[in-house]
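thread from #wetlab-drylab

HS: before we spend reagent money on co-crystallization trials with N-hydroxy-L-asparagine, can we at least see a predicted complex? here's what I'd submit
DV: go for it
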Amino acid sequence: MKRRTFIKSASLAGAATVIGTKALSEGSKVLAGAAPAWQGGPVVLSTWDFGQEVPQAAVEALAKGGSLIDAVESAVMIPEADPKVTSVGYGGYPDREGHVTLDSCIMDGNGNCGSVVFLEHIKHPISVARLVMEKTQHVMLAGDGALQFALEHGFKKENLLTKEAEAAYKEWLKTSKYMPAVIDKSNHDTIGLLAMDGKGAMAGACTTSGMAWKIRGRVGDSPIIGAGLYVDSDVGGATATGLGEAVIKVAGSFLIVELMRNGKSPQEACKIALERIVHKQPHYAADKGFLAGFVAMNKDGEVGAMSYGRGLQYTLHKDGVTRVIAADFLAK
Ligand code: SD4
């Protein structure tokens, strides 16, 4: 089915702007409570727009009897394998020395989690993160150790630097301008994804090649449990995108889940987390290009999404319909 026919438009009671991939309507408001009442089927929420096949993969995995972990893993494997996605997995932009390094984590609603950081040469870091969770007593493996673990479990060593990413890198080398706070369409787009099975159980996954042209060894928020992702089936889940350093500093996803535990809606919780970032670190607010954003869902299927700067989109699959929505933003 084509994306255009799959995405149902204008169905959020005027509160949110439902958009196609190309037509971002900036500044539109997302009021989570205004969505139609949830009918109780699976809900899949992710950062950005990686195509309708992403939430569909999660829904299909559940329909086939798979677990929530199967669902979130299979969904985020799609952008990981897509060479056109320059911010996740294969085709991701490299660090400042030309190496593609990947960060991923996965978590279920009962506190089980796994993570890989600074992993090279493996197309599906999310699957390695899952193995860390399932086959070890640890949560996080890094760098060469994570690679060794992956190879021992049958993963193939691959060159993840595509010709296109290499060309972009060579172009960047001409100026080698290093502006870590500036996150724009060319150097971001982590996928953070949350799925709920319709009975309130939840899992999440977050995977990225991180910031383009980063210092070698830099790890962002995405593979850090509590920063890039946190899930608790008693409450809900949250996941992040944008400048990872800002998200780590407030343990952003954990903060949002705890705010929801204390009665905040997902939308309110995302907003408070962003306010916390700029309250504690006002220099981010002063930075024109600064973008950090969150998506969150509670166990009642209510969702929220907000970024600091404008431009965040999110994808929501709920009651059988997938919508791409422009998130509200704080820096008006
Ligand atoms: C990072 N949070 O490595 C990631 C980058 C990102 O959208 O999300 N970009 O800091």
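DV: Residues 87, 183, 188-190, 208, 210-211, 220-222, 241-244 surround N-hydroxy-L-asparagine (CB under 6 Å).
HS: ok that's useful, forwarding to the group
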